[in-house]
Amino acid sequence: MQKIFLPKVDGVTVTLAHLLRHLHAQGVQAMLLGPSGGMTEYAGCRILGAFGIPFKAYPGLQINFISPYFIQQLREFKPDVIHLVDPIWLGVQALVVARLYFPDVPLVTSHDTNLPTYATIFGFPYSRRRCWQISSYLHSFAKITLVPSPSTAKLLRERGYLNLRVCDRGVNSESFSPVLRNFAARERWGIKSTDVAILSVGRLSLEKNLCLLVESFSLFSPKTKERAVLIFVGDGPWAPSLQQLCSTKNVRAVFLGQLSGPALGEAFASADIMSSPSFTETFGQVTLEAMASGLPVVGLYAEGTADLVTHFRNGLLLDVHHPAGPWNPHLALDPKASVACYDSCTDLMRPSSSFFGSIAARYAALLEVLIVDSMLRNNMAAAAFSSAQEYPWERCMGRMLGAYIDLSQSRPTPGQPVSSKPGFLQFFIDALVVGFAILVTAVLHLLYMVPTFDDVFT
């Protein structure tokens, strides 16, 4: 059960598409429940679209609902393993159905989205601590919870999650490669031969921390400003505000919009540096794709990014936890530095924070190191490309399939659904279960707003 799928493209949907192709190649049958997107089949997998209504707080997402028809189809499918991807809304409904109808079928969950982070960013009145408590409880029903990076696994372990297994992602070396560099594309973007193009790829939304990137650009020395060009690939609700911010800050920026396929690979390879200022990632798919395209990365020493980028080897990382201490851009990272996550640095990263200017200046200094030093930039580009070769999709998919096999073999007998009733009676029962599942999900989202003891007394 998946909260999103193609045609929407992000790290989760890309991973799921590769998984379905891998399962099909291995002769494994699969069925997918997700938001209705017009697709009924993908790589031999039947897709059941769930009815949904637009989620106005985050354009592009929906609030989806399970149906009696899905329960009927799941009963006929007779799954050996049920995988819930990010049980937040639709996944919670599916969890209720799975426990009522398939109590002996093992569950796998995935954690790819830090709900407390997004709830805070978009102004939901949720308690972060309560969100973590409820999320860990929901994942506790799973025999295995898959996480995309070691840093995310550590974060979840500290918050009480159990049965964690790291299953990272991969990159297609044909779709993302330095050989796709296109100088004609750079000319179309208005980039001169002496310019350095800094790339940002992803949804243009608040959680990507793009205000830090723009602020850093505005702090460049006049000489660096003449050479630096900021390239945005992607679209999102913050696009108009971002364009206005770049204009106000006098930042030279090019907006290419949403790209896919060969055009996306060309955009990656035709830039010079990848910027990754986000501290809300659980992996960083576009960061890996940039590295495979031969780009060094300048990012934060934060969840997801810290697992891919090694400071002064294939990129540069900024530790944001001590913004007032002594620092210079050529310092090694403190070996005792802790990986940043939203919970630990949200107050520091707000533009209104007294430390935001210092953090932006340091991030600008790291970018300038690579803009000015072409030899270092080229050496790190080669190292980034080499590092990305360690992430073939086949390895990732093998680990995920391995989790399914481990669980299916751990049961003494194949799972059987709760026995069904005659026609109309079964539909009526299924409809009641659907209503109950939606009610449980809604109640949980109300509970997210209940403060914890620590919220009240600290």
Automatic annotation (TrEMBL):
Transmembrane segments: 427-448
Matches recorded under InterPro entries: Glyco_trans_1, Glyco_trans_4-like_N, Glycosyltransferase_grp1
Glycosyltransferase subfamily 4-like N-terminal domain boundaries: 9-174
Protein name in UniProt: Glycosyltransferase
Pfam family, one: Glyco_transf_4
Source domain of life: Eukaryota
Entry keyword set: Glycosyltransferase, Membrane, Transferase, Transmembrane, Transmembrane helix
Domain Glycosyl transferase family intervals: 185-321
Record GO terms (molecular function): glycosyltransferase activity
